[in-house]
Amino acid sequence: MTDVLNALVLITNFVIVPATAYGAQLALGALGVTLIFGILRFANFAHGELMAFGAMVTILCTWLLQSMGVGIAPLPTALLALPFGILAAIAMALVTDRAVYRFYRVKRAAPIILAIVSVGVMFVMAGLIRFIIGPNDQSFADGARFLIRAGEFKQMTGLNEGLAIKQSQLLTVVIAVVVVVALFWFLQKTRSGKAMRAYSDNEDLALLSGIDPARVVMITWIIAATLATIAGVLYGLDKTFKPFIYMQLLLPVFAAAIVGGVGQPVGAILGGFVIAFSEVTITYAYKKFITYLAPESWAPEGLVQLLSTDYKFAVSFIILVAVLLIRPTGIIRGKVI
Amino acid sequence: MTRQGAFYFAIMALLLVAVGIGQSWNVALGILNLCLISAIMSLGVNIQWGYAGLFNVGIMGFAALGGLTAVLVSMPPITEAWDAGGTGIGAALLSLLATITAIVLVRRYVPDYLRFWVTVITVIAGFFLIRGLLDPAVDRIESVNPAHTGYLGGMGLPILFSWVLGGFVAAGAAWLIGKIALGLRSDYLAIATLGISEIIIAIVKYEEWLSRGVKNVTGLPRPVPYEIDLIGSDWFVGLTEWLGVEVAASASILVKLSYAALFLVVLAIIMWFSERALKSPWGRMMRAIRDNREAASAMGKDVTWRHLQVFVFGCAVCGVAGAMLTTLDGQLTPSGYIPLRYTFLIWVMVIIGGSGNNWGAVLGGFVIWFLWIEAEPLGNWLMQAITLYMGEGNWLKQHLIASAAYTRLILMGGILLVVMRFSPRGLIPER
After folding, report:
1. Burial of B305: CB neighbours in 10 Å, binned 0-12, 13-18, 19+
2. Among candidates B305, B141, B125, which has minimal Cα distance to B208?
3. Which of A51, A229, B125, B181 is within CB 3.0–4.6 Å of A89 for a Cys-Cys bond?
4. pLDDT band at A335 (very low <50, low <70, confident <90, very high)
């Protein structure tokens, strides 16, 4: 019986907890991508940089607050700085829209042209971020590190395996739930949210019924930038902030949006968790897990790892390609938000 | 080429000469060599985007495949490693082929309602079969002298073969990928190719038995003489005395010049074929498909097959360029492949130069690579100018000067945005 419990704790510690936090971060990023896909109708290659930009401003504000001695221990100071990061990201998104994307939207340019333009935006933002904060790792997490430490858990339960939950992981999940609930309430219940859904569903019909497209686009950018910043900051708190990592993060975020069904908020969340859990489960070494469950003579020799952790990012793509082949519309069908 | 185009090329040549006089000829030739390779890559992208309107952001992957081919062709084989794990690798490859055949057969002959699950089971069974054969062989190979080799080595042939072969390897991969991804909508294709190129990089990076991975393969044999041999040879020393120049510096210049000559030959061949193709009925058909897919399809053109064709051609050209790049570097460093430099920068080149025009793509390759390199001294100079009146030791001054290198990213993005907005047809527009 203890063996089963040990195995369960082991898998929770190394698979379920990290994958849940990572999935929530991906889901927040993918929600932004999917909203832009649904309403502005293009693949925004600059989204990873928007996440990094919001996170960067948050980090700068965090440092400022820390130097002034302001804090909300045991919670990380970054939460206090988050609103500033969000505001900066919103400003950034609105300025780029006004300076860059609006021109093509008015011209009704092909989606592919907008995607290419977003590559230009990506370059500029990547340059700005590296210019301001540099290309290196930045640490900004403070406050309590752990809710439960592995050692404490072992003492408490008397099991062999420890369970450690980082504060950032719990924060990620809580904030993600709050944000997602607020977003769905907004999309379903408010006038603006309904306008957004109508615009995404059928642009011409929405225009005919008097929906102001400029307003819809503005709200979309505001939401996308907010989500991107939150996702970026949570990822940075949970793991680390490094501009290059955020560019790499674009890939699983895209994968999550497409796997879930482009333009589908529920799909984006689902996709985020599908990608996160497959990345973690496929690259986890199950040797110890099996040793607990199976009779001793069955103990495996190798690590029992499907793919080495080096292929973590590749996994999200293999899933993406598989989904594109088998069910190109994604898990949840349709293009409506 | 129009007179306007010739004018741009003349300016470009003048700029390179200016760098030669102002900085050094070594730097100028170094830039020229990479300009030539960039021009070939951007020709490859232009074949896909300019001719057919395919948005491929997987260029990095095909360049890496070309680079891998350069290693596999030119390095000497490690017989010990082959003895240790050659059969295992062979068996794994055979089982990979068997798995793929099985999947194709399943997709063809198994009734509809069972097809999905039977495919999944075949994939899983094939995966474990391959891993079972591969893993022990890989362990044995990687334990053979890991500090120096630890991989299978290559074929020990002259590295120039790899330029051709690299094209074929990239073409083969492109055929496979095209078969899978070309049915997708244009922006999905972009994301799919971006992902596939990451997978290729992951393989090159982490399959150490094949490529030595992040341990890098260095010291690839060269197609041109080594500086040290030149300095030691009588005719070269005689020549430098006759010209009255310094021996060591001119040896390195001669090596760079020989590379430039080789690259120029390749560029000329690819350019000739691309121009012929563009002006042939085939090229007109491709542009017709690009401009109006439905109409071309109604005229009886097989759009998907033509897209596949053009995708394979373009990727092959990128593979050739990738092999040339690795040859020039003399080493394969998988961790150096990042999308910003190997995919998106090439895209900037095509867009700036003029998509659909081969001369434009070549010009774009030259201009953008030149700016990419020269943006650094330019950024430094700019930052020095801005911070001129700030006090020594001012934190802002130090920060600005330290970050000057990143102005190149802002510059590239800025150029792309400005060209897309005000001159979307590029420097040398399509006729």
Report:
1. exposed
2. B141
3. A229
4. low
Instruction: Please list every residue in chain A whose beta carbon sits closer than 8 Å to the beta carbon of residue B53.
Output: 112
Q: Cβ–Cβ of B417/A117 closer than 8 Å?
A: yes
Contact (CB<8Å) A311/B403: no
**What is the pLDDT averaged over residues B357-383?**
91
DSSP character at residue A135: S
* Cβ pair B406:A254 closer than 8 A: no
pLDDT per position as a tens digit, B298-349: 999 999 999 999 999 999 999 999 999 999 999 999 988 988 889 999 999 9
Q: Taking CA B36 as the corner, what is the angle to CA B32 and CA B38, rounded to the nearest 5 degrees?
A: 110
Q: Which two tokens stand for residue B358?
A: 């081969």
Mean pLDDT, rounded, for B386-394: 78
Q: How far apart are the CA of A174 and the nearest CA of chain B, in angstroms?
A: 31
Q: How many CA atoms lie within 13 A of A190 on its CB side?
A: 11
Paired strand residues for B153: B77
Q: Using a CB-CB distance cutoff of 8 angstroms, which residues of chain A are in contact with residue B416?
A: 116-117, 119-120, 123
Burial of A186: CB neighbours in 10 Å, binned 0-12, 13-18, 19+? middle
In the chain, the amino acid numbered B179 is K
How far apart (Å, rounded) are the C-alpha atoms in residues B377 and A59?
30
Rounded average pLDDT over A72-92: 92
Measured between CB atoms, does B407 come within 8 Å of chain A?
yes
Measured between CA atoms, the residue of chain A closest to residue B383 is A131
Using CB atoms, which residue from B135, B191, B416 is nearest to A43?
Answer: B191
Look at residue B165 and tell me whether its pLDDT is greater than 60: yes
pLDDT at res. A122: 94
Inform me whether the pLDDT recorded for A301 exceeds 80: no
